[in-house]
Amino acid sequence: LPDGRSVGSVEYETAWGFGPNLEIGDLDTIAELNYICNDAGLDTIEAACTLGVLMEAGVIAFGDGKAAVETLKEVGRGTPLGRIVGSGATFAGKIYGITRIPAVKGQGIPAYDPRSCRGNGVTYATTPMGADHTAGYAVTANILKVGGDVSPLGDEGQIELSRNLQIATAAVDSTGLCLFVAFAVLDNPDGLPQVIEMINAMYGLSLTADDVVALGKDILKREKDFNTRAGFTKADDRLPEFFYTEELPPHNTRFALKEELDEVINF
């Protein structure tokens, strides 16, 4: 930073969230916001979504980096505004009467807009964890064409894509492996067998590919059961309404899947 403080590399979600998402173009300001989050223990995606809600409410202006920095500092000071910001985008939206809140199940939506990457939109809506892009990273087939090719702008294949990725991700996460292992596994027929062989060697097991799929399904069912007992319903497995009504340029697309989302975790 200009004053000599050091901040780690600005991760892409952070660059998006504090940058174009808030219409802030100054890298030093983005790094400062990153520094504040690191210091206060805040998630940069959630913090960026929350600042966006405050800008939508007119509390601070879009593009006002100085105001964004001062507002985020309020979290560490424990002021009333800081407590609102620290409680996340959904809470802030309720306080200020904002309905365009980019969150699902109380968790802020990451950089991938669900209208232009619909597989991720399915994941945001249906993963028991809330709007988590890593729970079923459909960017693989939607954008990168890894492990298949599903058009990011259409509805066809998105339910199956997200479901299969969520099952696989739940299983991979349980091993402690980095999610990026999926890039190798999805395009290499020897990838998954080698991962299974590694797990079996480590723990003295004899798992098969079917066992790994069953593990992923079991994890998702347990997570969904927890949510059900906590009071979540099918209505919580939906994206915010503005994604269904407002078009996203340049393709002028809207998210369309609703009832179909109930079929994602249907096992």
Topology (SSEs and partners):
Layout: H1 12-18, H2 27-40, H3 44-56, H4 65-77, H5 80-86, H6 89-96, E1 103-104, E2 107-108, H7 118-126, H8 139-144, H9 158-175, H10 181-186, H11 191-203, H12 209-229, H13 242-245
Helix pairs in contact: 1-3, 2-4, 3-6, 4-5, 7-9, 9-12
CATH class of the largest domain: Mainly Alpha
| CATH homologous superfamily designation of the largest domain | Aldehyde Ferredoxin Oxidoreductase Protein, subunit A, domain 3
Known CATH architecture of the largest domain: Orthogonal Bundle
Class inferred from helices and paired strands: mainly alpha
- The CATH topology name of the largest domain reads Aldehyde Ferredoxin Oxidoreductase Protein, subunit A, domain 3
* Helix amount: 40-55%
Termini separation comes to: 50 Å
Round the Cα radius of gyration to an integer and report it: 20 Å
> Hey, roughly how much beta strand do the residues contain?
under 5%
Residue-averaged pLDDT? 96
Number of domains: 2
Reading the helices and strands in chain order gives: HHHHHHEEHHHHHHH
Q: Largest sheet at a glance?
A: 2 strands, antiparallel
Shape: globular
Unreliable parts: none
> Biggest sheet: strands side by side, in what order?
1-2
Tally of contiguous helical segments: 13
